[in-house]
């Protein structure tokens, strides 16, 4: 198999919420594979800071200020991006939030906010970027799902509901648009080492010990671990892959627990 199958030279990739963390890591991976990167955020300060961080890595990106849940803003900015940068070839719906609250304590407003950002946002983005992809009869869309697309966990009911819905949205978009040469797939990250998890990624912390013992790979994911999946699903190599959720989780979902090597 030729490595050219994974070459993204000349492609334009919009990665929502990629000012930090896993989104930024995927965007860096796509850039290193040749893609022009476009990101968005609802904070100009975060956009400006991210542009500088990417520049330190030798990557020139374009940043746009808009909210993925604001349909009018999405319509305007998709048109602006395509006019200023060029057609969007790859869309990664990465922007999202989580609120950890037991169901009986969760406010309806918080429930609705999580679903709005984590499920309705990707729907709006896919609708308006996908419309142009249909006209061009080409495109790649990656929705950031989660292990919670498959399993439950205490205090994350809204997040799990949204990510479960996003899995099925992914499959339905893939079904509707495969005939237009558009591949819609998802990535489901496991537990990753990010700035947000730093306080609990210490030896002796109960949750850290749980993750190490529960993950067959016996470690937290590194942010770079997502790059291969993102490049694959953005490239020619995945031209006949439709409606698949690629779990990058060190084997958690495949296992009842870490196997003993003794």
Automatic annotation (TrEMBL):
Coiled coil: none
NCBIfam families to which the protein is assigned, alphabetical: PRK07097.1
Keyword Repeat: no
Protein name: 2-deoxy-D-gluconate 3-dehydrogenase
Keyword Oxidoreductase: yes
Family per similarity comment: Belongs to the short-chain dehydrogenases/reductases (SDR) family.
Enzyme Commission code: 1.1.1.125
CDD domains given in the database record: Ga5DH-like_SDR_c
Keywords of this entry: Oxidoreductase
Organism whose genome encodes this protein: Arcticibacter svalbardensis MN12-7
Pfam families named in the record: adh_short_C2
An example Gene Ontology molecular-function term: 2-deoxy-D-gluconate 3-dehydrogenase activity
């Amino acid at each position: 198999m030729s490595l050219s199958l994974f070459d993204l030279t000349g492609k334009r990739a919009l990665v929502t919420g990629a000012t930090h963390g896993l989104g930024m890591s995927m965007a860096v991976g796509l850039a290193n594979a040749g893609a022009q990167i476009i990101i968005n955020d609802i904070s100009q300060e975060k956009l400006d800071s991210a542009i500088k961080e990417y520049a330190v890595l030798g990557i020139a990106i374009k940043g746009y200020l808009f909210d993925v849940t604001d349909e009018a803003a999405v319509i305007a900015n998709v048109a602006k991006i395509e006019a200023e940068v060029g057609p969007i070839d790859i869309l990664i719906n990465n922007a999202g939030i989580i609120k950890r609250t037991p169901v009986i304590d969760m406010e309806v407003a918080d429930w609705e906010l999580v679903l709005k950002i984590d499920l309705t946002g990707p729907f709006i983005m896919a609708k308006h970027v996908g419309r142009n992809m249909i006209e061009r009869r080409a495109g790649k869309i990656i929705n950031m799902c989660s292990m919670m697309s498959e399993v439950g966990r205490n205090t994350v009911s809204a997040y799990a509901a949204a990510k479960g819905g996003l899995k099925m949205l992914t499959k339905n978009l893939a079904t509707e648009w495969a005939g237009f040469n558009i591949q819609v797939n998802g990535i489901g990250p496991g537990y990753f080492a990010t700035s947000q998890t730093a306080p609990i990624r210490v030896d002796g912390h109960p949750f850290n010990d749980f993750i190490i013992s529960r993950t067959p790979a016996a470690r937290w994911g590194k942010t770079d671990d997502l790059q291969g999946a993102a490049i694959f699903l953005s490239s020619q190599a995945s031209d006949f892959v439709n409606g698949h959720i690629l779990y990058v989780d060190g084997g958690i979902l495949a296992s009842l627990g870490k196997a003993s090597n003794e």
